[in-house]
Protein backbone atom coordinates (compact mmCIF):
# COMPACT_ATOMS: atom_id res chain seq x y z
CA UNK A 1 0.00 0.00 0.00
CA UNK A 2 1.25 3.45 -0.78
CA UNK A 3 0.40 6.53 1.20
CA UNK A 4 0.11 9.88 -0.49
CA UNK A 5 1.90 11.59 2.37
CA UNK A 6 5.37 10.50 3.41
CA UNK A 7 6.23 10.76 7.06
CA UNK A 8 9.64 12.05 7.93
CA UNK A 9 11.80 11.17 10.91
CA UNK A 10 10.59 14.31 12.69
CA UNK A 11 6.92 13.39 12.65
CA UNK A 12 6.47 14.78 16.17
CA UNK A 13 7.06 18.25 14.68
CA UNK A 14 4.14 17.90 12.28
CA UNK A 15 1.21 20.21 13.12
CA UNK A 16 -1.27 17.52 12.00
CA UNK A 17 -1.78 14.15 13.61
CA UNK A 18 -1.17 11.10 11.37
CA UNK A 19 -4.90 10.41 11.19
CA UNK A 20 -5.57 13.77 9.52
CA UNK A 21 -2.83 13.53 6.89
CA UNK A 22 -4.25 12.77 3.44
CA UNK A 23 -3.87 9.18 2.30
CA UNK A 24 -5.10 6.84 -0.41
CA UNK A 25 -4.21 3.17 -0.24
CA UNK A 26 -5.44 0.41 -2.50
CA UNK A 27 -5.17 -3.37 -2.14
CA UNK A 28 -5.92 -5.86 -4.89
CA UNK A 29 -6.94 -9.12 -3.23
CA UNK A 30 -8.74 -12.43 -3.58
CA UNK A 31 -8.40 -13.27 -7.28
CA UNK A 32 -11.22 -15.56 -8.38
CA UNK A 33 -11.30 -17.39 -11.71
CA UNK A 34 -14.62 -17.78 -13.49
CA UNK A 35 -14.89 -19.99 -16.56
CA UNK A 36 -12.09 -21.92 -18.17
CA UNK A 37 -9.51 -21.59 -20.94
CA UNK A 38 -10.40 -18.89 -23.50
CA UNK A 39 -13.67 -18.05 -21.71
CA UNK A 40 -11.94 -17.53 -18.33
CA UNK A 41 -12.02 -14.25 -16.45
CA UNK A 42 -10.19 -13.38 -13.27
CA UNK A 43 -11.93 -11.02 -10.86
CA UNK A 44 -10.27 -9.17 -8.02
CA UNK A 45 -11.50 -7.49 -4.88
CA UNK A 46 -10.24 -3.90 -4.85
CA UNK A 47 -10.10 -2.43 -1.35
CA UNK A 48 -9.66 1.33 -1.12
CA UNK A 49 -8.97 3.21 2.10
CA UNK A 50 -8.74 6.98 2.06
CA UNK A 51 -9.56 10.21 3.79
CA UNK A 52 -9.42 12.29 0.60
CA UNK A 53 -12.56 14.41 0.22
CA UNK A 54 -12.86 13.56 -3.50
CA UNK A 55 -13.66 9.96 -2.57
CA UNK A 56 -16.92 8.61 -1.16
CA UNK A 57 -16.32 7.32 2.35
CA UNK A 58 -13.24 5.99 4.08
CA UNK A 59 -13.35 2.42 2.78
CA UNK A 60 -14.80 0.84 -0.33
CA UNK A 61 -14.60 -2.71 -1.67
CA UNK A 62 -15.45 -3.37 -5.31
CA UNK A 63 -14.96 -6.25 -7.76
CA UNK A 64 -12.97 -5.61 -10.92
CA UNK A 65 -11.58 -7.61 -13.82
CA UNK A 66 -8.28 -7.14 -15.65
CA UNK A 67 -9.88 -5.18 -18.50
CA UNK A 68 -11.03 -2.53 -16.02
CA UNK A 69 -7.36 -1.82 -15.24
CA UNK A 70 -6.53 -1.82 -18.95
CA UNK A 71 -9.22 0.81 -19.55
CA UNK A 72 -7.95 2.90 -16.63
CA UNK A 73 -4.41 2.91 -17.98
CA UNK A 74 -5.55 3.78 -21.50
CA UNK A 75 -7.78 6.65 -20.31
CA UNK A 76 -5.09 8.12 -18.07
CA UNK A 77 -2.51 7.82 -20.85
CA UNK A 78 -4.80 9.82 -23.15
CA UNK A 79 -5.85 12.47 -20.64
CA UNK A 80 -2.54 13.10 -18.86
CA UNK A 81 -0.05 13.47 -21.71
CA UNK A 82 2.68 15.09 -19.60
CA UNK A 83 2.57 12.49 -16.83
CA UNK A 84 4.21 9.09 -17.00
CA UNK A 85 1.47 6.52 -16.47
CA UNK A 86 2.92 3.24 -15.29
CA UNK A 87 2.73 0.50 -17.93
CA UNK A 88 0.61 -2.55 -17.26
CA UNK A 89 1.28 -6.12 -18.29
CA UNK A 90 0.20 -7.04 -21.79
CA UNK A 91 -2.78 -9.31 -22.21
CA UNK A 92 -0.73 -11.29 -24.74
CA UNK A 93 1.66 -12.29 -21.96
CA UNK A 94 -1.09 -14.42 -20.49
CA UNK A 95 -0.99 -16.83 -23.41
CA UNK A 96 2.73 -17.41 -22.95
CA UNK A 97 2.04 -18.59 -19.42
CA UNK A 98 0.17 -21.69 -18.42
CA UNK A 99 -3.43 -20.56 -18.96
CA UNK A 100 -4.43 -18.87 -15.73
CA UNK A 101 -2.20 -21.01 -13.53
CA UNK A 102 -2.12 -20.19 -9.83
CA UNK A 103 1.35 -18.67 -10.23
CA UNK A 104 0.25 -16.50 -13.16
CA UNK A 105 -2.83 -15.28 -11.26
CA UNK A 106 -0.66 -14.45 -8.24
CA UNK A 107 1.85 -12.53 -10.38
CA UNK A 108 -0.89 -10.60 -12.18
CA UNK A 109 -2.58 -9.66 -8.88
CA UNK A 110 0.73 -8.34 -7.56
CA UNK A 111 1.39 -6.41 -10.78
CA UNK A 112 -2.09 -4.84 -10.68
CA UNK A 113 -1.58 -3.90 -7.03
CA UNK A 114 1.70 -2.15 -7.86
CA UNK A 115 0.18 -0.52 -10.95
CA UNK A 116 -2.85 0.97 -9.21
CA UNK A 117 -0.85 2.10 -6.17
CA UNK A 118 1.63 3.97 -8.36
CA UNK A 119 -1.31 5.85 -9.81
CA UNK A 120 -2.88 6.35 -6.37
CA UNK A 121 0.38 7.80 -5.03
CA UNK A 122 0.58 10.45 -7.77
CA UNK A 123 -0.92 13.72 -6.53
CA UNK A 124 -2.67 14.59 -9.80
CA UNK A 125 -3.65 11.09 -10.95
CA UNK A 126 -5.17 10.15 -7.58
CA UNK A 127 -7.78 12.85 -8.16
CA UNK A 128 -8.73 11.68 -11.65
CA UNK A 129 -12.34 10.76 -12.25
CA UNK A 130 -11.21 7.56 -13.99
CA UNK A 131 -9.32 6.31 -10.92
CA UNK A 132 -12.22 7.23 -8.63
CA UNK A 133 -14.55 5.32 -10.95
CA UNK A 134 -12.37 2.19 -10.85
CA UNK A 135 -12.05 2.34 -7.07
CA UNK A 136 -15.58 3.31 -6.09
CA UNK A 137 -18.29 2.74 -8.67
CA UNK A 138 -20.53 -0.24 -8.00
CA UNK A 139 -20.44 -3.26 -10.28
CA UNK A 140 -23.73 -2.44 -12.00
CA UNK A 141 -22.46 0.97 -13.10
CA UNK A 142 -19.17 -0.53 -14.33
CA UNK A 143 -21.11 -3.04 -16.43
CA UNK A 144 -22.47 -0.27 -18.64
CA UNK A 145 -18.98 0.40 -19.98
CA UNK A 146 -18.11 -3.23 -20.69
CA UNK A 147 -18.70 -5.44 -23.75
CA UNK A 148 -21.86 -7.61 -23.56
CA UNK A 149 -20.03 -10.95 -23.25
CA UNK A 150 -17.97 -9.64 -20.37
CA UNK A 151 -21.11 -8.32 -18.67
CA UNK A 152 -22.75 -11.76 -18.80
CA UNK A 153 -19.71 -13.37 -17.19
CA UNK A 154 -19.62 -10.74 -14.46
CA UNK A 155 -23.32 -11.19 -13.69
CA UNK A 156 -22.72 -14.93 -13.38
CA UNK A 157 -19.79 -14.27 -11.05
CA UNK A 158 -21.80 -11.92 -8.83
CA UNK A 159 -24.63 -14.48 -8.64
CA UNK A 160 -22.11 -17.11 -7.50
CA UNK A 161 -20.85 -14.80 -4.74
CA UNK A 162 -24.34 -14.23 -3.37
TrEMBL record:
InterPro entries in alphabetical order: PX_dom (IPR001683), PX_dom_sf (IPR036871)
Recorded GO CC terms: endosome; membrane
Domain PX intervals: 22-142
Listed GO MF terms: phosphatidylinositol binding
PROSITE patterns (UniProt xref): PX
Annotated spans, Disordered: 1-22
Record-given protein name: PX domain-containing protein
Amino acid sequence: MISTQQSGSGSSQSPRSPSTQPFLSVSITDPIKLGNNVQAYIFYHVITKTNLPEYQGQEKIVIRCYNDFVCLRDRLFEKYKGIFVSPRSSKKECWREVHFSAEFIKMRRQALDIFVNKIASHHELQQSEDLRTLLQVDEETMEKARPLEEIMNILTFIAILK
